[in-house]
Design goal:
Blueprint lengths: L4 E3 L17 E6 L5 H16 L2 E6 L4 H13 L7 E5 L3 H4 L6 H5 L9 H6 L1 E2 L2 E2 L2 E7 L1 E5 H6 L8 H17 L6 E4 L6 H13 L17 H13 L13 H9 L3 E6 L3 H5 L10 E4 L13 E8 L6 H11 L2 H11 L12 H6 L2 H4 L1 H5 L6 H4 L3 H16 L5 H16 L4
Parallel strand pairs: 1-3, 2-3, 9-10
Antiparallel strand pairs: 4-12, 5-6, 7-12, 8-10, 8-11
Helix pairs in contact: 8-9, 8-18, 18-19
Amino acid sequence: MLRKLIPLLALAGTVGAISQTQAAELTLSCGAVGAELALCEEGVRRWEEKTGHDVNVVSTPNSSTERLSLYQQILSAQSGDIDVMQIDVVWPGLLANHLLDLNEILGDDVADGHFQTIVDNNTIEGRLVAMPWFTDAGILYYRKDLLEQHGVEPPDTWQELTDIATRIQAEERQAGNDRMWGYVFQGRAYEGLTCNALEWVASYGGGTIVDDQGEITIDNPEAAEALELAASWIGDISPRGVLNYTEEEARGVFQSGNAVFMRNWPYAWSLLQSEDSDVRDQVGVMLLPHGPDGESSGVLGGWNLAVSRYTGHPDVAADLVAYLTSEEEQKRRAIESSYNPTITALYEDEEVLTAVPFFSTLYETFANAVARPSSSTGDNYGRVSNAFFNTAHGVLSGDRNSAEALAQLETELSRIKRRRW
């Protein structure tokens, strides 16, 4: 069959439940970062063959901030045009009122074997509103060949990364590669910068913006020091263009051989190792660096599948979710494109570890990643994150001093808090 690929933007203004005459046809939204869309479509094809149902796959913006805005618009209209949605790990609390309880449809044991922290994250007021699909944590990619060539070891701290990147960038440029940069990351003013900046702050001992009790903690010297160091990278070891990079722009520079270090998610591994990659077999993966006295702090990422309350086919949609998040599918996605399973047993699977060796060495990073403060801020998380990434972007751009910017951010967050999170 020909699967229809529909831009999600085209659905944003539509309202109305799917007709009962289309009981065997669903619409699923998938991301399109790296190999995401192709993997999603292959999983859908397999489910279609097993069940005889049809699925239309809709494309979504790569920016999670833009995707959330579109989802909220569609769900607020109580539209039934999208039955199954791929949602970020920080969205269950924001979208829960619009999502079905999957335990109610699939049974209380449907999430057994998945990381319990993610199951708990997706359980809102006793309702499992999303099934874990793949998990993520920020990791550091580095050019093994360049570090060996220049006689340096991988960095433990952010200052060591800065020093190594500065040295290798300068020497590579002197050798003729004037496009070489030391470090690329996600610096655009969007949710990806919240992840990067929180990793810097948390690894310096500067907390998580808002703590578990809902107390605002961001205005502190450690957080200011972390952002100040990051700001020093811009135009020095990182191009000014990094201020508009998302995941794929950073990967493009690194994969073309023009960066020493890159912060990204695990999905990038299989693409860096592809036959057409300029850095194939030259890349190492490790924990993110930390501050002078802190610990590596990869931020928890990952995506889940949820069923809209407004679907006309709740049982069929839930069955699609159960299949796509199954051990069989998660194993395939891990082997083919290094997407991190949410099923713990797969981290001991020999075929998975052969395909993605760093899964075993970074298991604790995936299992114990730093969470963004979505639980403690509830419906206000979007405003909190927006305020944080805009503040971080302003510091990186050189528009504001980090200490003054964080003091202003604390004031802004206090105003948001008065709306009761």
